[in-house]
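Throughout our pipeline, every protein is held as a single compact record rather than as scattered files. The record that follows is passed on verbatim for readers who wish to inspect the format.
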Amino acid sequence: MTTPMLRVENLVKEYRLGMFRKRTTFRLEADFTIDKPGIVGMMGPNGSGKTTLFELITGSNQLTGGRVICAGQDIHQVRTRERDRLAIHYHQSYQVRHFHRRKPEFLLERARSDYPLIHLFDEPQFNTQDGYIGFMLDFFRRLRAEERLVFVCLHPNEPFHLDILREICERFVFVLRGRLTLAGDFDELLGNPAVRDYLGALAPAA
């Protein structure tokens, strides 16, 4: 049986406030599997949990519950210095997110990969001049051809952002108030009324 590229298993992340009477201010829940390499588009309102999900997949944020299995390894049990050999998070202008050590390294296992298998691009900046968009799309496709799993998270504010997602992505994730909805293609994504409400005037005519 082939090991899935990514298994997000009963994941829960809660942020809570209060010393004696704690109250939950945000809760993210996710449970999904991606079996093989591909390019996944992600979108959702600000504050919906997209960046938090990426941080949990790369092991740079602590889970409240559940597990994240990257290529057969629980990334939260892998040495912090080696987690980016499994999954790497590029935030906005392609700066890499850093990890926070919570356990001594000798208590954690070694990564069984030398090069990132999962690449998460969090609202990358697309310059519309000088062929930059084409360069980045080719880069995403090259990672895909190298048997990597690529996430491209965008907060569309221009029509060409939707064109990018439609052109390169094989499946989609929509995040709203800490809940995920998966779509198998762009048409299925746009068939979700919550997605159309989120896109507003950018939503293509039905």
